[in-house]
Write the structure tokens for this entry.
Amino acid sequence: MPTCSVPMQGDKKCLKGRLKCSAFTLTELIVVVLLVSLFVLLAQINLFGLLTRSTFKAQAQELVSTMQRAASAAAESDRRYEIIIDLAEQSYLLREITSPDLSEILEEEIIVEQDFSANCRAVYVLFDDGDYTNEGRAKFRAGRSGWQYGGRIVLLDKDERPYSVVINRLNRGVTLKEGEVGLLLPKSKDEVPF
């Protein structure tokens, strides 16, 4: 027996037979849109907070990785590398030293060049021989026998909390630690701290 689906009187969307009438009211639709918008807003806030928190850690870890890479490459070859921390420009670079003139930086020597951001600022460098600088450039050189100088680079996050990148010339280690980590310093410039 053939059946015919004909709209009922007064309800043009509902069909006779097995199909049921289903529709959202305007109020239900507005509530659903508001809930979805609220979830999207919360996700954006959480994601933005996560990105800003990890930006400092990511930049600091990038510096540590660059220094570790320089020490590893120097240990495995007869090449020398230099990390230059430019406190005035808030940047650093890794270069392979190819010329005897250490003051001249050739474009082809540069391996990595990065800028610090407002979330990660370099404030000073303290070398393990007692030298200190909070302006200009600080240089760490790595060769086959290890780091020429050890020390610490103090970084501040956006909340002004200090972190130290510690360069250990004895074991070629480079680590990131929270706070201003103490170093073994000599009593005089002629005394070796180790």
Notes: Residues 37-178 form a domain with the minor pseudopilin epsh fold fold (CATH 3.55.40.10). The chain is about 25% helix and 35% strand. Residues 26-76 form the longest helix (51 residues). The longest strand covers residues 120-127.
